[in-house]
Specification:
The complex is a heterodimer of chains A (545) and B (173). With 545 residues, chain A is α+β, with helices and mostly antiparallel strands. Chain A is 36% helix and 22% strand. The chains are: A alpha+beta (545), B alpha+beta (173).
Chain lengths: 545, 173
């Protein structure tokens, strides 16, 4: 494990050192092929290697004990397995094959090291003005190429194991399932610089000004590593502090406790206790029901702990190249979403959160996390604000949809306030007619939509409030639907299709002629918006932004 | 733009929505035959299958299953002409509009620039009648459109036209 010595330093033998054509913060985005962090194979196979070492040590522990404490006889008596064939090492010594055995072991180690070296040599990446490419594999070669103007986001993952070695995994997210381009692993400082370079190239901004040099790291390697581990998750120089939204730990814990899951758990506990009391009154031996609670308690506890740990250092902030979301205590992860990559936004509030005025924000995005990250992580990246006050909601909406919400937005906060908590028809919102109460018992006065110049707003739910915002340039198609019950009531539903995700974009039980009008207007407006949209090269034309 | 059109004609009670009035392109009448044959095959298989089960089991109550199957298939067959007539599409300036269904009516408008893929499928039965099925895919899974029962030549012409339109109006995601 010689990894730490070379961590954080630039690639030792990058093929060609060309001058920086586009003035990047790192020399990696110069259109030439580069290699990853030298410790990459170790980090990728990290846990497996540790496990193998553990198995070896466990199996050889008698031998090791004997080696360290020569007088100590591990096993006395007749049942000692000290016969040829019982212990391979004894066998080798007894038969005089010790040298051969050692040579074989050395050979295996050499082959593994050679394989690691070759796989590291063959794993190269290149970033040009147009594409990012990765070539990998020794026997089965893979060549993955992604166009920069199709980038949906750039994320940097730092699993705990890699963090110790000062390495990070950079992922260029493109649309589609498991279609991301991974650069695993890079040095910590390099990955941050490279992310900025990729986003700058993708933005279409030409010839940026000479960037500030990365702060020279001083002190010993250990000091640097400790400093990196203790550094705040979000670099304070990266974003203006007033744009940063954070979550206090108390709110995080409180919101988790007030979730549907915890109410369910409480209900189950109450039910079990009742059964227990009634059961023991009738017959003995009902106490076993208590044990059914154990797995559920463990599951719920780990859910709570996971959620709190994951979002304990959550932050969302505006950077020049998009919204940056970071979270994680041990394994940390941050994602940067350039403008125009959010396909729909839902702000929702459960009944339990209403007294505190807490809200959560989820988004639909075109890129789905890679399967290697596990489903949970892929799912988490759609949660943009786990829990926030109404002010937080507006700050985050201002970051996600700057052209709609915020100081320079075309519509005021008032309209979105009505979207969150309002009801009844007004100038902006068209709500369901009274006869829709058959289908929307409590929410018919609130259930409604607003078509803004840049987005469709759908508000629904009187008990579980939700406001869905679909930016018009992201609408893929529009549908109007009517079932038999709705036909009898002269109602219809509208579905504004966006890429799949947790945000529902269907609004039912609208007046049929209102729905027809929205269908026509939204279809026309989304075509116009898509043609005017320039976010795939979001800073094109700007020079040196 | 921000207010819905209140001056639009009120939708009469019980009448279906018709958001895009105009001439709808219909699918081939031969598609009705294909659908009826398909229903007949499925009807025979399920009715005979459940009938055999009733016969072998010797339970008199099980006779209800083949009868129910028969009734369901007859109902489906009775509604098939209307269902096929309800299928239609329009090529507008910037989008394709597709409608289907009588009981559960659905009208979808897909802008040409949003189409990611145009597929032509031919099943064995459909092919025997010289028909094709056209499938459109966008980045949103929910907006999938399948136009069944197009004559082969028409399907291919439509596909080429859609691809050409999509190319000229290419939009990002």
């Amino acid at each position: 494990m010689t990894a730490p010595e070379s961590a954080g330093t630039p690639e030792p033998d990058a093929p060609v050192e060309s001058p920086l054509p586009s003035g990047g913060t790192t020399h990696l985005a110069d259109g030439e092929w580069h290699r990853l962090h030298p410790a990459t194979p170790l980090l990728r196979g990290g846990l497996a290697l540790v496990a193998i070492a553990g198995i070896l040590i466990a199996n050889l522990r008698e031998r090791l004990v004997e080696l360290l404490l020569p007088g100590f006889d591990w096993c006395r008596g007749d049942d000692c397995p000290d016969v040829p064939g019982g212990d391979p090492i004894s066998y080798l010594i007894d038969e005089g094959y010790l040298l051969i055995g050692l040579a074989a072991a050395l050979g295996v180690v050499l082959v593994i090291v050679a394989f690691f070296y070759v796989s590291w040599r063959m794993h190269t990446f290149r970033i040009t003005d147009e594409v990012v490419e990765v070539r990998s594999g020794v026997l089965f070669r893979t060549h993955r190429k992604a166009r920069l103007d199709r980038i949906q986001g750039v994320s940097i993952n730092r699993p705990l194991f890699a963090r110790i070695f000062g390495a990070a995994k950079l992922e260029v997210e493109v649309a589609g399932q498991d279609a991301n381009v991974q650069l695993a692993y890079l040095g910590n400082a390099l990955s941050d610089g490279l992310r900025a370079d990729i986003l700058r190239l993708a933005s279409g901004a030409r010839a940026a000004e000479a960037p500030a040099a990365t702060p020279g790291s001083s002190g010993s390697l250990l000091d640097r590593r400790v400093a990196e581990l203790l550094a705040p998750e979000l670099d304070p120089n990266l974003a203006p502090p007033e744009s940063v939204v954070r979550i206090p730990a108390s709110r995080l814990i409180g919101s988790s406790a007030l979730s549907v899951a915890s109410v369910f758990v409480v209900l189950v506990i109450v039910a079990t206790v009742i059964i227990l009391v009634l059961g023991s009154a009738v017959a003995e031996g009902f106490y076993w029901t208590l044990f059914t609670l154990v797995p559920m308690a463990i599951g719920f506890g780990s859910y709570l702990v996971n959620r709190v740990i994951k979002f304990l250092r959550y932050s969302i902030a505006a950077t020049p190249d998009g919204v940056r979301i970071g979270y994680g205590l041990l394994s940390i992860r941050n994602e940067t979403l350039p403008p125009g990559r959010i396909h729909s936004v839902a702000v929702s509030q459960s009944l339990l959160w209403r007294p505190m005025d807490w809200w959560t924000i989820r988004v639909n995005r075109a890129s789905r996390g890679s399967s290697t990250d596990g489903g949970q992580q892929a799912q988490q990246s759609t949660v943009v604000l786990p829990v926030g006050t109404r002010d937080d909601v507006f700050r985050v909406l201002g970051l996600l949809l700057p052209e709609l919400v915020g100081d320079d937005g075309e519509t005021g906060r008032d309209l979105f306030e009505r979207g969150l908590v309002g009801r009844d028809r007004d100038d902006d919102f068209t709500t369901s007619p009274r006869r829709a109460a058959v289908l929307r018992w409590f929410s018919w006065r609130r259930n409604g939509f607003a078509l803004l110049p840049g987005a469709v707003l759908q508000r629904r739910g009187a008990i579980w409030r939700e406001l869905a915002i679909v930016p018009l340039p992201r609408v893929q198609s529009v549908a109007i639907e009517q079932g038999p019950l709705e036909r009898a009531l002269r109602l219809a539903g509208i579905n504004v299709h966006t890429v799949a995700g947790p945000v529902a974009t269907r609004l039912g039980a609208l007046d049929a002629s209102d729905a027809e009008g929205l269908f026509r207007d939204a279809a026309a407006a989304s075509i116009a918006a898509a043609q005017a949209d320039r976010t795939h090269r979001w800073r094109e034309g700007e020079v040196g932004a | 733009m921000s207010t819905p059109q209140h001056d639009a004609p009120e939708v009469a009670p019980g009448r279906s929505i018709d958001p895009i009035p105009g001439e709808w392109q219909r699918v081939s009448p031969k598609f009705l035959v294909v659908e009826l044959i398909g229903t007949a095959i499925s009807g025979v298989v399920t009715v005979v299958g459940s009938g055999v089960a009733w016969f072998l089991s010797g339970l008199p109550g099980l006779i209800a299953v083949p009868i129910a199957m028969l009734v369901v298939h007859l109902l489906v067959a009775a509604f098939t002409p209307r269902r096929v007539r309800a299928l239609g599409y329009q090529l507008r300036d910037d989008d394709l509009v597709f409608r289907r269904g009588i009981m559960f009516l659905r009208v979808v408008a897909v802008p040409y620039g949003r189409m990611q893929l145009v597929d032509i499928n031919r099943g064995p039965l459909v092919r025997a009648f010289g028909l094709s099925e056209l499938k459109l895919v966008t980045a949103a899974a929910a907006s999938h459109i399948t136009i069944p029962g197009l004559p082969e030549a028409e399907a291919e012409a439509l596909r080429d036209r859609l691809v050409e339109l999509a190319e000229s109006r290419r939009a990002g995601l």
